[in-house]
Amino acid sequence: MGWLQNVWRRRSQERELDAELQFHIDRQIDVLVQEGLSRDEARRRVQLEFGGLELTKDECRDVRPLRWLDDLMRDVPLGLRGLARERLFAISVTAILGVGIGTSVTMFSVLNAVVLRPLPYARPGELATINTHLIVQNRWDGTSMANLVDWREQSKAFASMTFHRRTSVTQVTFTGFDAPQRAQEGLVGPEFFDLLGTPALVGRTFSREEFDRKDRVVVLSEGLWREQFGGSGSVLDLKLTVEGEEHLIIGVMPHAFQLPTRETRLWRPLSLLPLWPGALSVRDSDQFEVLGRLAPGVRFEEAAAEMQVIGARLRQAHAVNANVDIRLVPLVDHVIGERTRRGMWLGFGAVVSLLAIACANVAGLLTARAARRRRELAVRSALGAGRARLVRQLLAECVGLWMVTSAVGVLLAHILIRLLLAYGPRALPRIDEVSLDPLAVAFLGGLVVVFACGTVPALAAAKADAGAAFSTRDRSSLPRHRLQDFLVAAQVAGALMLVVGAVLFAQSFLRAQSEDPGYPAEKLIIVPLDLPRQRYPGRPEVIAFFREARERIGRLPGAVAVGGITDFFISRNADQWVTVEGQPAGRDAGAPRLAVEGVTPGYFRDAGIDLVEGREFEVRDYEDGAPDVYIVNETLARRFWPGQSAVGKRLVGGERPPKDGRWATVIGVVRDIRRESLDVTPIMLGFIPAFPRTMDLTIRVAGDAAPLIAAVRSELRAIDSAVPFTQMFTANGRLAERLDGRRFETQVLGVFAGIALLLAGAGLYALLAYQVALRTREIGIRSALGASRESIVRLFLARGLRLAGIGAVLGLGSAISAARLLQSLLYETPVINWRGYAMAAAFMLLVAALATYLPARRAADVNALTALRSE
Amino acid sequence: MSPAKADLPQGTLDLLILTIVANGPQHGYAIAQRLQRISNDAIQVRQGSLYPALHRLDNRGLLATEWRQSETGRDAKYYRLTKKGRAELERERARWRQFTRAINVVLRTAGNET
């Protein structure tokens, strides 16, 4: 409104001014006409006496308060017009700053959505996860209900605590519209929703009475609701079949509600768990995870200290707790994770560097342009434009430039965010909530102001000696370009830092990607299956299913072998205790845990995993009454029997030696396989002969795996359409997906570094080209005096490379001191490695050499005669 | 510019304007005419440069403006002295007298010495 008023006021002021001056002039003309002059002659005389109508108007405007604001508004379009005339300059600036601003806004939006924005729960700062920590193993663990009861009783720091079942064991099958599906569920305590304080999107959450009565009720996630029920409000009367039982749908939670995990698609009362409430009394259990809300005014550290005390008390009170400590983690850290947070801040740091480089680049361009325009400005100054007026005009051009570049930047950010949402790594938490952030735009506004304030003085300074511009002498003298030199060296330094970062990440990514998974990943199709208990109550049914699947799929052209394993790709922790004959047993003795997988006969041969020693499981190992046998992986064999053959050694599941002396015998050792991800070192694995009801079929193929997927699906449907298998994937694809985060980081940094390199190169090029142009006359004299082409090229080459060299040294120094921050983000890549730095420096110097050589060669082409005649 | 006509010392234009307007509201053209007439054309003010001075005095609150019918029947912008302007005029007048007196003293005595 104020702006409009301003415009309106200015208009009326202008009208008044016109009328006032016109009155004066007309009166004077009338007088002269009365004195006998012709009207034209009178007008001419008056104009002469009056002394320039426009000049007078301008002087009148000058005395107005807030004159500068009015002028700015008038000068901005003028500035834009001026820029349109210098198209190349305007396009360069717009492109450079547009990219700088666009990437910054995008990155800030991501940082904000993923890291900065508070969690979507009531007073999220009060929320923390409370978990058991195994002291000897130094690792996280779930807790027991009995311990939780004690925590609740003894803690004063927490207003309330709630619990849910360990999320690693909460896959359920539900039957939606068409086929049964697997989904992650939240089996949660009665206070779960109230504690988090997020209201249901539709309907309600379950009450304590329903929990205690073990009512079969289910709360859906928004995603599942939309997918299966089309987002219909009348979903509340419907039932959903979960694990073969009908459950009443009572509510829908909004998309933002992502606990216990992001993948959670439905919630049920934990009392529906078969082992409830027997679970209450068992202290030796790790089946639950706990969330707490701090009492008002209690600080996180106080709560952590209190839980330490409670932990110590429980260690003394109960022998099973001897190795158990309590760890608190703020919920926000639990959800986002240290790795992600660091990665995001790193990306943000990178983009800020990029923006700084872009700014330095543009500042260089502006300074050079201002110097080029000294003549123009001097002319205008001589024609009577005030100093303030000229600065204002330059400022107006800047403002115009900013308006255009900001618009381009925001548009670019908009596009980048769209792309990110479509193709970005899904592994990042809350990445789907990224939006063009008002905060980011405000942040950008701040930068714009800061930089505008930086450029205007530069321009003003360039203008200060405008008077001198008339003397042609200053063209041949050698102006010092300290500011421009500094800007270019800074760009080189910044770019080199980014390049070092990008090279390190690329090294790390390639390192991870080149890890040998230990199986032919490109030739394996994985089909997670969950055979419903009702239809497959016992082993014979499961075996029958597996046999038929093996036979049918085996007949498909291209299929080589079919095997079954409990979990090929796990998100599960190593969660089984093991006791090895002759070695310390039990968690208190520091025994490690391992993951145990059931596999079908001949599995390793079928899946293409090499047997290192011993033999595979054979059909006889699966018979009732057969002796217990194990196949272990190399990591386990090394851990327990280093330097020895593992075959024939004995172990047993659990924390104690078997009472009946029934040890299981190791019959084989297989290669370590990387199945969680290529960048996760293999954990200890034990395999036992089994036909698991929940099983990943692994299908090895001869050629390309992808085309077979559809055929496999229809074969499985033909066997039993009631078996849920929603997903099917190639091992290769899954492994690639698991490296998405690293790939993304590497790509982002790579793009940033590439842009930075280009900018630094362009900055160097522009500076030298400008200097060559300035020194044309000098070069002409030199060559007239017999300087060789080579010596002139050398002159400029030396100058450019010295600048680049200074920048590179600065950049390498900064990179080395900042590299420490990257270490935890890299996979088996030392942050100080000469190869990476040499590569980065080589890139930089290559660009610098090219950027320097081109203008230097142009200098050498200067013709002595034309150069001297040009003045 | 002919040497016979004096340049105005810095700041004196304001004083002259205030003095002229003190006699009653005037429009710009009339002020210019009076300025020339009173000084017997001794003071040459580029007519255009009168207006920035008028506007500045207006902005400082020493003058107030008003559009009304002029003697020819056409609307013109009239300037009138405000209370603040009258006070300023008194101050400026006193300063000017003091200044000219001092200059005169200097001219007399210094002139006699030589």
How would you describe this protein?
The complex is a heterodimer of chains A (871) and B (114). Chain A has 871 residues and is an alpha+beta fold. Chain A has four domains: 2-65; 68-123 and 337-468, no CATH class; 138-322, no CATH class; 521-736, no CATH class. Chain A has 27 helices and 23 strands. The radius of gyration of chain A is 37 Å and the shape is elongated. Chain B is an alpha+beta fold. Chain B contains four helices and three strands, in the order αβααββα. Chain B has helices spanning 12-22, 28-38, 47-59, 83-113; strands at 26-27, 63-69, 75-81. The chains are: A alpha+beta (871), B alpha+beta (114). Chains A and B meet through helix 1 and helix 3 of A and helix 2, helix 3 and strand 3 of B.
For the CA atoms, what is the radius of gyration of chain B?
16 Å
Helix coverage percent of chain A: 40-55%
Oligomer: heterodimer
Radius of gyration of chain A: 37 Å
What's the total number of strands of chain B?
3
| Total DSSP helices of chain A | 27
Straight-line distance between termini of chain B: 32 Å
Largest sheet of chain A: 6 strands, mixed, barrel
Low-confidence stretches of chain B: 1-5
Overall domain count of chain A:
4
Distance between the termini of chain A: 54 Å
Largest two-chain interface: A-B, 22 and 20 residues
Largest sheet of chain B: 3 strands, antiparallel
- Helix/strand order of chain B, N-terminal first: HEHHEEH
Mean model confidence by pLDDT of chain B:
81
Compute the average pLDDT of chain A. 82
Q: Give the overall form of chain B.
A: elongated
Strand order of the largest sheet of chain A: 4-5-10-7-9-8
Q: Which strand order do you get reading across the main beta sheet of chain B? A: 1-3-2
Based on helices, strands and strand pairing, what is the structural class of chain A?
Answer: alpha+beta
